[in-house]
Design a protein that fits this description.
By secondary structure, the chain is of the alpha+beta class. The protein folds into 4 domains: 4-66, MutS, DNA mismatch repair protein, domain I (3-Layer(aba) Sandwich), CATH 3.40.1170.60; 69-157, 2-Layer Sandwich (Alpha-Beta Plaits); 162-218, 5' to 3' exonuclease, C-terminal subdomain (DNA polymerase, domain 1, Orthogonal Bundle); 231-394, Dna Ligase, domain 1 (2-Layer Sandwich). 45% of the residues lie in helices and 17% in strands. It has 16 helices and 11 strands. The chain has helices at residues 4-12, 38-41, 51-57, 68-83, 102-105, 108-126, 138-147, 159-166, 179-187, 193-198, 200-218, 250-270, 302-313, 351-367, 375-379, 383-394; strands at residues 21-24, 33-36, 62-64, 88-93, 96-100, 132-135, 153-156, 236-247, 277-284, 289-295, 321-329. The strands form 4 sheets. The protein has a 4-stranded antiparallel β-sheet with strand order 8-11-9-10. The chain has a 3-stranded mixed β-sheet with strand order 2-1-3.
Length: 397
Amino acid sequence: MDAFYAAVEVRDDPSLRGKPLIIGSLPTERGVVATCSYEARKFGVHSAQNIKEAYRLCPHGVYMHPNFDKYRQVSAQIHEIWNDYAVRMESIALDEAYLDVTYSAGSFERACEMAREIKSRVLNETGLTCSVGVAYSKTAAKTASEEKKPDGYFEIPTAEAFVDLIIDRPVRALYTVGAKTAEKLNKIGIYSVRDIRDRRDEVIERFGKHGRLITELAFGIDERKVIAYKPEDAKSLSREVTFQEDVDNFGLLRDVLVLLALSVEDRAKRHGLHGKGITLKLTYFDMQSITRSRVVSSADHAGTIYEETVRLLEQVDKRPVRLVGAGIYNMSGEEGRQLTIDDYIDENGSEKQQLIERRLDELQQRYGLDFGGHMDEILHGGVMHKTIEYMRKHYKE
């Protein structure tokens, strides 16, 4: 999709059309750019950029918070269209996916027809544009999809065509070559894809398995399959929040971990996932990030997640905190999971459930919040952040 979040907002509010629109944090807040319109990109604004830097580059832009509930609804609509054509669809994000049409198309020519049909249907059914690349491999398809953005269409039928297209481009034109890898390559005099091809053995020797992948891509070789993503394939699951001002009171952090633990539990249950490890993440005021973890017999319950993250919190440096997060890892699906002693205990009467209920009662009394009937709303979307910001402003010992 083309500047997906921004495009959805422009579609729903035509007065935004033609303006530099930045979706993410507001200039008065901490945070980053989630995405922006192409008008904003002309000023140097881009995704993941610090919002203060974006405002410096584009002070006259229109800034707004993302509406993820709306974007997910549109994404579901788009993915339904895409799924009509694919034998397998590998979703990369709400707005991007690889579609394997090898067998549904039968020929490269029919695959190209499908691509144009997809573009037409997405526009007619959602009012949004997308850029489609048709190619013989995943890397080439990704490259092709970006070749004529926005509202683009491009074909790369063979490895030879792919190499001809990128051979004199910078090394970052290749999949998996990020800024750090590019810097390391540049330091040894490798700047272009052609350089990688000419010094293939040296790249493999210096970069090992990653170097072999890079050199294969430089020759147009990419045999990776399109793999349909399943939530149960995820290795970890977490929820985190960035404070608008640094927090130096660890009592507040313990309160916040109650809600983060409930959110992680909720997401895991919705996907039928179970964890056997728990993580705590902190980013301090100086942008230093740390992660602490511990293995447990079962990380299924919010009470366990909360209890263990608090224990981990007690072991870290007590410095002002910018971000806090809680998560689970070593995950598996329902099938093949061994029962633990907790599974034999009535959840409503369990010690962990009672712990969470006590902590929620304490939060209600401390902050004057009413969680009754509103917990689902708090755990999803942007309401969680608003609730935690309210807690930060009204925290009392």
